[in-house]
Amino acid sequence: MKSYFLKVCLIIGCVLSVFAAMAQAQKGDEWNIIANDYSNYTGISIANGRIGIVPSEQPGKAKSIILNHVFDKESKNGVSKVLLGINFANLEILINGDTLNTDNCSNWKQILNMKEAAFVTSCRFKDDVDFSFSYYALRGMPYCGMIDVKAHPLKNNIKIQVGGQIICPAAYKNIDSGFRVLKDLDARMPILQTVARSPFGKHQLATSASFIFDDETPDLRHQVLDSLHHQLMFSKNLQKGEDFQFAWTGAVCTSQDFSDPKSESERMVIYQLLGNKQVVINRHKQLWNKLWQGDIVIEGDLESQQDVRLALYHLYAFARDDSNLSIAPMGLSAQGYNGHVFWDTELWMFPPLLVFNQSIAESLLNYRFDRLEAAKRKAQNYGFDGAMFPWESDETGEEATPTWALTGTFEHHITADIGIAFWNYYRVTGDKQWLANKGYPLLKEVADFWVSRAMKNKDGSYSINNVVGANEFYHHANDNAFTNASAKTVLNYAVNAANSLGKTSNPSWKEVANGLLFHYNNDGVRMENREYKGEIIKQADVNLLAYPLEIVTDFEDIRKDLEYYEPRMAPEGPAMSHSILSVLYSRMGESDKAYQLFKRAYVPNKRAPFGALSESAFSNNPYFATGAGGMLQAVIFGFGGLHISEKGIEQKKPCLPKQWKKLTIKGVGPELKTFEVK
């Protein structure tokens, strides 16, 4: 064990030094992250809660489009997997016959403008012409994206040839690509389009796209490049010093959301094409400005300000208040974990969103409530009462975990995590009608599940046996600390919910909650499970009892658990554990240790050049929205001293790191309160 810990310390030290150097190279200001080097490149998703566009380092290119909660099978014998959209977000540009790319351009720069959710690539082609490409995943038109392009010839007259492309993923079937010019009176509407079936035929997908010009439309021609790839092209002669601007816009629709995705994608493009380009851009900016009413301002530490705001930007980008959809661990940046929904949402991402945007928080909860009947069926199928939510969830609400993964069969704490999120929403909003219509009906089913899931011991106590807890390294755990604690918490919350509505709660809820067992070693440290013998753990488990569950409240007990489990956390584990430890040290008033753990939680996971978070220090699967949620909780509930209580959101004992001059958390709760820490 000792040699293992020494090795871990050496690895962590190396990782921290490498990524600290990377972080120092991060450029920009408090709202803009600037990249000037693409030699080690990980992009940043721009998203609007429905689609995510993942730009490339190449000017005018995008690697992929990710769809939210649109699934087909990931293989013949596999489970569901979120689909890629048919990608419209690529431009091919030739200048005097030479193709623009990173090999023949200088002054390359990319900027993520978090304030306006715009991603801008600029470059200079052979000292002849400056280009700028501004990408938007339009917030007001959630199935649409746009590339706004500017060209400025510097020395000579030039001829540019532009191809707006649609690229279909190779696995798609029945691909039908074409170009039409629609006409109505004097309106001429050129539409490039690809329609296809998803790999196993579950959905029809349609992408339409077109150019938007400020002045007269040039002649357009259609070119088929291969079976997956076609483009709409135009040519234009530009005079020296003459600015030229145009846009390429596209819409991605599927049969998940539309009965006729082909026609609807055309209408969305036509709406922008005929006089509404600036309208939709302005609306996009207005909606993002409203989102940023909820914000975190850090003075005196630009790197931390950028990192924290980038985390909050991603949670806003990956969710909507009108979708009733949830957030996968990788959000809308990649297909990681098949785009399924885990406890990552309720335990890690939901609390910051609940603080800043109760409408988005409610939308996330609606995702679960809409699938309550499926959870009740699952409980029945396994011999339990109430509702049993799946470890991995897709659009069906049924279990979507691959069958080889024991988490899908045994990681039951998610049912409690969901119930806890529901009660916290009520604590923040005080919406009694919502509690009666949605909150309590779900909490009742969750509580009934845990009563049926717990086993009564001979001495009258209760155990929950044979589970996978938050520490997923340990299979078939009995009395896992976090599982028992989350069940205890949600059972008590169900009682509180019944009392709030004047209802009589099931007496068994309180009996089981009071009787659940926790086990301790000889030093008084709470054991991760009944048979735990000090093994390395994947991530925080016992420490979650102090935060967010607040079952362990005595600082001496909290410290014992912290000092015991911190060195036992695997370095390859996910980012969130050290965020939890940071919150706890903040609440004990130890700002130096809290800040160290805050940085440890995410700096090794940052990827150049924008600081995208990977799941762990040793993986490369950004953007890990779960880690963003943990980082934000360290700031809000640790340094900021905020607590979610029966009084709503209140500030108790903030703890400002010496590296920061001031911390401001604004737009908090329904009253949009501001909390300052100096």
Automatic annotation (TrEMBL):
Stretches assigned to the Glycoside hydrolase family 65 central catalytic domain: 309-528, 530-601
Protein keywords: Hydrolase, Signal
Residues making up the signal peptide according to the UniProt record: 1-20
Pfam families given in the database record: Glyco_hydro_65m
InterPro entries the UniProt entry points to: 6-hairpin_glycosidase_sf, 6hp_glycosidase-like_sf, Gal_mutarotase_sf_dom, GH65_N, Glyco_hydro_65_M
A single GO molecular function term of this UniProt record: hydrolase activity
Keyword Hydrolase: yes
Stated name of the protein: Glycoside hydrolase family 65 protein
Organism per entry: Marinifilum caeruleilacunae
Taxon lineage: Bacteria, Pseudomonadati, Bacteroidota, Bacteroidia, Marinilabiliales
